[in-house]
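Tokens in:
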């Protein structure tokens, strides 16, 4: 199964963001509110056995809860599609959690890609040729107060033509 680790975000700020993206015209494909997340690690295709090992490792993490701030809007991607996202401020607890998760997953025997961690929440997707200007402008007008995050999750992603379906397999509380 296709797996990733997500930081769980509270409803309030995400409902506000979702409403903003919803009002945008054109080719924009808003990420459904229940799918909004911040990816902490991407495991990709994973066997049952490795999934269990990953879960056991993640379950031992004792990390504090923290406040998250979402900053300016950005666009990832290019010709094959663009993702409109909000960047998360590079706060120490977020990066420490990310490092601990990676260490536990590696300890469980998983191989992880070595990419720079650029924490973000993807809000919408656009075709590669679309002008991301209106989406970015709409997001400039929104300010979200910092909010607390209390858990992260092991999530299964099943890709469908009309978008991915995410299923939370396990949730890990932050103290
Ligand atoms: P879709 O691929 O259909 O647009 P999606 O990107 O939300 O949907 P997945 O591709 O299953 O669904 O990815 C799940 C999460 O993992 C997303 O947040 C995605 O950005 C992230 N992700 C996917 N591939 C990688 C990768 N190679 N490295 C890091 N993160 C990734
Ligand atoms: Mg994807």
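Residues out:
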């Amino acid at each position: 199964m296709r797996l990733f680790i997500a930081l769980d975000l509270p409803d309030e700020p995400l409902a506000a963001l979702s409403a903003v993206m919803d009002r945008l015209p054109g080719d924009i494909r808003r990420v459904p509110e229940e799918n909004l997340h911040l990816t902490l690690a991407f495991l990709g295709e994973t066997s049952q056995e490795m999934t269990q090992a990953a879960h056991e490792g993640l379950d031992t993490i004792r990390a504090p809860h923290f406040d998250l701030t979402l900053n300016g809007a950005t666009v990832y991607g290019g010709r094959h599609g663009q993702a409109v996202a909000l960047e998360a401020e590079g706060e120490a607890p977020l990066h420490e959690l990310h490092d601990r998760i990676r260490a536990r997953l590696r300890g469980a025997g998983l191989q992880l890609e070595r990419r720079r961690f650029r924490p973000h929440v993807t809000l919408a997707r656009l075709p590669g040729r679309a002008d991301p200007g209106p989406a970015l402008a709409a997001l400039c007008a929104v300010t979200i107060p910092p909010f607390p995050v209390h858990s992260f999750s092991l999530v299964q992603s099943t890709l469908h033509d009309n978008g991915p379906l995410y299923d939370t397999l396990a949730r890990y509380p932050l103290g």
